[in-house]
Amino acid sequence: MADRFLLDSSAFITLTDREPGVERVRELLKAAKRGEIELFSTFVSLTELQYIKTYDNGAAWANRMMNAVRKFPVHWVHSDVTLCAAAADLKATYTISFADSFVAAAAVRLDAVLVHKDPQFAPLAHLAQEMLPPKTAATPRT
Asked: What is the pLDDT of residues 68-88, one digit of tens each?
């Protein structure tokens, strides 16, 4: 089993919206809390999660949810010159979004398995990835 994982914003949304794959995200969080793995995410995912949840549920709800997320056993990767350069190289080489280029660059830097639902990461075959099940149109909320 890998010992380092990096959660994309789609993994957090899987958790908050109880989408297919929620149990896997919970399993990773529990393993990180027990110290069995290291769990990472990026400033990009933190930003995406907050603006998506603000749009979906309003600022007050999003702020409460973000306070809870910041307490997760996750190491947050922030931008620096080296990460910017690596993200720029990925963006120039692959058809991925600006945000995804930072997420992928962080996963490469950390030698972490990228956990996500985003088919846009498919061209990055050299990157260790775990794709969560896609969201279904009628995912029940529990």
From this structure: 999 999 999 999 999 999 999
For 85-105, the pLDDT digits (tens) are 999 999 999 999 999 999 999
Angstrom CA distances, 45 to 18, 35, 84, 140, stand at: 17, 22, 15, 24
User: Starting at the edge strand that comes first in sequence, how are the strands of the sheet with 75-77 ordered?
Assistant: 75-77, 38-42, 4-7, 113-116, 129-131
How many whole angstroms separate alpha carbon 115 and alpha carbon 11? 7
Q: What is the pTM of this model?
A: 0.91
How many residues in total does the chain contain?
Answer: 142
Distance, in Å, from the CA atom of 66 to the CA atom of 118, rounded to the nearest integer, reads 21
Residue type, 43: F
How many C-beta atoms lie closer than 10 Å to residue 52's C-beta?
A: 17
Distance of CA 96 to the CA centre of its chain: 15
β-sheet bridge partners, residue 75: 40
Give all domains of the chain, ordered by start, each with its CATH number. 4-130 (3.40.50.1010)
Q: How many CB atoms lie within 10 A of CB 18?
A: 16
